[in-house]
Design brief:
Layout lengths: L7 E4 L4 E4 L4 E4 L7 E4 L4 E3 L4 E3 L6 E4 L5 E4 L4 E4 L7 E4 L4 E3 L4 E3 L6 E3 L7 E3 L4 E4 L7 E4 L4 E3 L4 E3 L6 E4 L5 E4 L6 E2 L7 E3 L5 E3 L4 E3 L6 E4 L4 E4 L4 E4 L7 E4 L6
Length: about 250
C-alpha cells in the first residue's frame, strides 16, 4: 500500500500521492472537508473535517495534537478552555464574572449586571462593596474604611454633621441624638459638640441647657467651661467672675 508523506494523500484513482488542501497538514482527500490534521495557524473542526482559522461560538482552539476546535463548558458562549472558569462570554440568562471567568446567574459582591453590555458583570465603583450601578452614587454597602450615606447612596470617609459613622456591619452614617450637633454614637451621652441654646458638658458628653456647678456657659464654643478653681460657680473663667466661692474662700 502506498504511504504518502504529510501534506499528501493516496489518490486511489491513479495510486499516486496527491497534494492535500493547503490548510491540511494531513488528509484523506483533496477537498477542504477531508482534513485529518491542520497546518500551522489552523484548527481542525471535527464535525466537518475542515481546518479553520477561528473556531465556532461555544468552542475554543486547542493547541494539543492535533490542534483542533473543542467544546467549551455548556455555560460559556466563548471560552479559552474546557472548564466553567475559563469562559470569556456567556449565553442566555447568565452573566460573565471577570473576577472568576465564570458564567453566573447573579453577579458576585463588587459587581453588578451591566446596563450597557449584555451578559456582563460590571465592577462597582471602588468606594462600594456592593452596588446597584457603576457610579459612586449607586452604592448599597461600602468598602471597609467608608460609611454608607443613604440619602445620596454614596460611601464617605466622614459623615455629615448630625451623624456618626457606625462600624457595625453594614458600616453606615447614623443620625445623632437630636440634642447633639455632632456625636460619636446614637445616645444623648455621646455628644461631641452642641448648637443653639445647648452646651456640651464634657464630663457626661451630654448637651445641656444649664451647666453644672464649677462650670459656665462659654458661648463661643457651646461648651460648659471650667470656672477658676477659686469659684464654686461663675460667669466666666477668671477669678474675678465668681458668683460663689470654693469652700475655704469668701465671696
Amino acid at each position: 500500500m502506498l504511504v504518502c508523506p504529510n501534506g499528501y494523500y493516496n489518490n486511489l484513482s491513479d495510486h499516486k500521492c496527491a497534494a492535500c488542501n493547503s490548510a491540511c497538514a494531513t488528509c484523506s482527500g483533496s477537498g477542504t472537508s477531508a482534513c485529518l490534521s491542520c497546518s500551522a495557524t489552523y484548527f481542525l473542526q471535527a464535525s466537518t473535517s475542515q481546518c479553520v482559522s477561528s473556531c465556532d461560538p461555544g468552542q475554543y482552539p486547542s493547541s494539543g495534537t492535533p490542534s483542533s476546535c473543542l467544546s467549551c463548558n455548556q455555560s460559556c458562549l466563548k471560552c479559552t478552555g474546557p472548564s466553567s472558569t475559563e469562559c470569556t462570554a456567556c449565553t442566555g440568562s447568565l452573566y460573565y464574572s471577570p473576577s472568576t471567568h465564570a458564567c453566573v446567574a447573579d453577579c458576585p459582591a463588587g459587581y453588578v449586571k451591566s446596563s450597557s453590555t449584555a451578559n456582563l458583570c460590571s465592577p462597582c465603583h471602588t468606594d462600594c462593596a456592593t452596588c446597584s450601578g457603576t457610579s459612586s452614587s449607586e452604592c448599597l454597602t461600602c468598602s471597609s474604611t467608608l460609611f454608607f450615606e443613604s440619602s445620596t447612596q454614596s460611601c464617605v470617609s466622614v459623615c455629615d454633621s448630625g451623624q456618626y459613622g457606625s462600624s457595625s456591619p453594614p458600616r453606615s452614617c447614623v443620625s445623632c441624638n437630636a440634642s447633639c450637633q455632632t456625636c460619636s454614637g446614637a445616645s444623648a451621652s455621646s455628644c461631641v459638640s452642641c448648637s443653639g441654646s445647648l452646651f456640651l458638658n464634657e464630663s457626661s458628653s451630654m448637651c445641656v441647657s444649664d451647666c453644672p456647678s464649677g462650670t459656665f456657659k462659654e458661648a463661643s464654643t457651646n461648651k460648659c467651661a471650667a470656672c477658676s478653681n477659686q469659684c464654686a460657680t461663675c460667669s466666666g473663667s477668671s477669678n474675678s467672675q465668681c458668683l460663689s466661692c470654693s469652700s475655704s474662700l469668701f465671696f
